[in-house]
Write a structure and sequence with these properties.
single chain; alpha+beta; Penicillin Amidohydrolase, domain 1; Penicillin amidase (Acylase) alpha subunit, N-terminal domain; ten-stranded mixed β-sheet; 19 helices; about 30% helix; about 20% strand
Length: about 750
């Protein structure tokens, strides 16, 4: 009997080991097999790195350069590039666990792979050639560096795989993530409401207020996910100045606020081919070209805008839950089950998830019903071509002609050129919606007349070219404050069903005020504005301080903190005794206002801030630079730990942070890639730039891991070597890379 028990126990152990090994190894075999680009192309690129390790990539053809882009960025950040490719294949959960699985859920929900398969072949041949070369570069690096691979079977890839990544990320830049997350979790849909549409609530002053588009509801999804991380808060500042207003050059200031690490962080590069492509700027991982920056004659930058590009329909379902009514007829809901790989410790679990679609678009079912989504450029990857064409434009007319095709779904664009032109475009592929409906609420899903097909004409978009003020800006605000009182657009000129946003940020209020007050906007004046660290007592800042004035804390320490805040000078420059406390108070209010969430409870926020400062610093007024830190790495020789200033929603932006074990706030999102471009009459274009860390942001053993950090903290810029003669003078390494085939 004992022997039998021992044998049974041994068999169970063996079975358990088999199961564990199976769960550790099944995913690469189950995943969609990768295919390399078609054989027959050989690429060659020269990569020259300057004193800061920034790659300058040269090639005979544009595809040669794209191949070099892949190699150079892999050398610096193959870690992040693999994450981006895993997302583009629906396999990120096998790397990042439940947090990665939320991306995979979205990948299947929006049918990113299907979008790429249906549309990639229709892209212009030269654009496809660019992406095939880029994919070849990533494949070659993966083959040469097998020890760096995170996930088996992730490579090879081809241009269509990269296109799937575009299809996935595109709608998240205009807010679909929070909508998906709220529907999946059964939370209320909070959205900014527009003007002059019946049923939109207003406060006592007539201002439009937020409303809930759906009641609280329990989720019935089989795989609930932490969706809050999918709606990453992104911001930016952008400025363009004419020669007349600057007293010298045409000036473009790109001041993006993106996460400092990860799949939407900036990577600086300069590209040049013998086919005429020559551009300096930055790209995002998984992109074979810079998407903002400048060429010899012109440049532009982006800020994230918040147009209403997503519509939500509640479907009328039959008793079986498998059919929906449209124009009086029943239609079968499309249904498809996918396996999501989700890593837990050493094993990867296969989690089945069913996805639904109607003629409207992807469908999410919860206890309150079935909700369909339809969003701008839903089955399109045309932006892949548009960004490439923008980089090759040589005039304002050519640049605008790309946008006139309405292929890019969103982003504010600020432009300047060597001829002295400046321009602002509130770019948004607004759906051509039927008037008379509350398009920011939940629409009836049984009327086909509400299922739009096309976008509005380019002429309907807000835009300003060469204003009399001589300046343009955007800081993630409505397009109606952009150029000064004499030139700003009138909201009444734009149809309410477009869905133009109607919000200001503190950065926009400060920028508009400072630009309007300046007689001349020379370099010194612009630096003061760009690095301004003040708050206006308006909007959510005013609401917060009004609430502090009304408070009557019984706790002595809370009252001391309250008085410290009431005496604050509203400037996050690290000099005031209330700066650290104000920093802790403001961030969550800024975030809630930006994302249309309820404002935090002031008393609770104050208590948390007091507790945090007393626990970690033993005082309410530590120097701000001791609290707010730029940190990269933890060991010598290239780790940094430096003080920062600025705050959430100041023009010098330290937007969001993580709280480290020592109580310090490590900034993870804020001023990121900054580029300052000047065209002076009769001279060649010149530019300067800076990043918080360095070119090799995930390579701790590289001297370029954080070699820009000290300059960044001091608010200094480094030179961009746009011209080859300058690159060669400052070259620290130089090599030629050639494809394997």
């Amino acid at each position: 009997m004992k022997k039998w028990i021992v044998r049974l126990g041994g068999a169970l152990v063996v079975l358990a080991l088999v199961v564990v090994i199976g769960l550790m190894t099944w995913e690469p075999f189950y995943a969609r097999a990768g295919e390399a680009p078609a054989a027959g192309h050989t690429y060659s690129a020269e990569i020259i790195r300057d004193e800061f390790g920034v790659p300058h990539i040269y090639g005979k053809t544009d595809p040669d350069v794209a191949y070099g882009v892949a190699i150079a960025q892999s050398e610096d950040d193959f870690f992040t590039l693999q994450d981006v490719i895993a997302m583009a294949k629906g396999r990120y959960g096998a790397i990042a666990g439940p947090d990665g699985a939320q991306i995979d859920f979205a990948y299947h929900l929006v049918d990113a792979r299907g979008t790429a398969e249906r549309n990639y072949a229709a892209l212009p041949e030269d654009t496809q050639a660019l992406f095939e070369a880029y994919a070849s570069g990533l494949n070659d690096y993966a083959i040469s560096h097998p020890a760096e691979l995170k996930l088996a079977g992730l490579f090879p890839i081809n241009g269509e795989d990269v296109a799937a990544g575009f299809a996935l990320r595109q709608p998240f830049f205009f807010g679909i993530g929070s909508i998906i997350g709220n529907l999946v979790e059964g939370k209320p849909l909070r959205r900014e409401f527009g003007p002059d549409i019946p049923g939109f609530p207003r406060d006592a002053d007539g201002a439009v207020t937020e409303a809930e588009a759906a009641p609280e509801q329990a989720s019935a999804t089989r795989f609930p996910l932490p969706w809050g991380e999918m709606a990453a808060l992104s911001g930016s500042n952008a400025f363009a100045i004419t020669p007349e207003k600057s007293g010298g050059p045409s000036t473009l200031i790109s001041n993006s606020h993106q996460p400092w690490r990860g799949g939407v962080s900036w990577y600086e590069l300069v590209v040049e081919s013998e086919e005429g492509w020559h551009f300096a700027g930055a790209n995002l991982p998984g992109t074979p070209y810079p998407v903002l920056g400048h060429n010899e004659k012109l440049g532009w930058t982006y800020t994230v805008n918040r147009p209403d590009l997503v519509d939500i329909y509640q479907l009328e379902m039959d008793e079986t839950g498998t059919r929906y009514r449209l124009d009086g007829e029943w239609h079968e809901l499309e249904e498809k089950t996918e396996i999501l790989p989700v890593k837990f410790g050493p094993v990867v679990l296969p989690i089945p998830q069913t996805f639904y679609r109607s003629v409207h678009g992807p469908v999410i079912i919860n206890d309150n019903g079935a909700f369909a989504l339809r969003y701008a450029k839903m089955d399109s990857i045309e932006s892949m071509d548009a960004y490439y064409r923008l980089g090759r434009a040589q005039s304002l007319e050519e640049w605008m002609a790309v946008y006139e095709k309405m292929e890019n779904p969103n982003f504010n664009a600020i432009y300047a050129d060597a001829e002295g032109n400046i321009a602002y475009l509130y770019n948004a592929a607004f759906p051509d919606r039927k008037p008379g409906y509350n398009w920011r609420g939940v629409l009836p899903g049984n009327e086909s007349s509400l299922i739009w097909e096309d976008t509005v004409d380019f002429e309907q978009l807000p835009k300003i070219v060469n204003p009399s003020s001589g300046w343009l800006y955007n800081a993630n605000n409505e397009p109606y404050t952009a150029a000064g009182a004499a030139d700003d657009l009138d909201p009444a000129d734009f149809a309410p069903e477009l869905g133009v946003e109607l919000k200001q940020t503190n950065r926009s209020r400060r920028a508009w005020k400072l630009l309007s007050e300046a007689n001349q906007l020379d370099r010194d004046a612009l630096e003061r504005i760009k690095y301004d660290r003040a708050y206006e007592r308006e909007g959510y800042v005013s609401d917060l301080w009004d609430a502090l004035e009304r408070m009557k804390p019984e706790n002595g320490k809370l009252d001391e903190a309250r008085r410290l805040l009431l005496d604050w000078d509203f400037t996050a420059d690290g000099k005031g005794s209330g700066d650290a406390l104000a920093l802790l108070m403001i961030k969550d209010f800024m975030s809630a206002e930006y994302q249309n969430k309820d404002l935090p409870d002031v008393a609770e926020q104050l208590q948390w801030s007091v507790d945090h400062l007393m626990e970690h610093f033993g005082r309410l007024d530590p120097p701000m630079g001791e609290l707010l830190r730029l940190r990269q790495g933890s060991t010598a020789p290239f780790a940094v730990d430096l003080p920062l200033d600025g705050g959430s929603d100041t023009l010098r932006a330290s937007t969001t942070w993580q709280v480290d074990p020592d109580g310090r706030l490590q900034v993870v999102h804020g001023d990121s890639f900054i580029m300052w471009v000047e065209w002076l009459a009769g001279e060649k274009v010149r530019s300067r730039s800076i990043q918080p860390f360095g070119a090799a942001v995930t390579r701790p053993v590289s001297k370029h891991y954080a070699d820009q950090s000290a300059l960044f903290v001091r608010k200094e810029l480094k030179p961009v070597h746009f011209w080859r003669v300058d690159v060669l003078k400052n070259a620290k390494s130089r090599k030629t890379v050639t494809s394997r085939r």
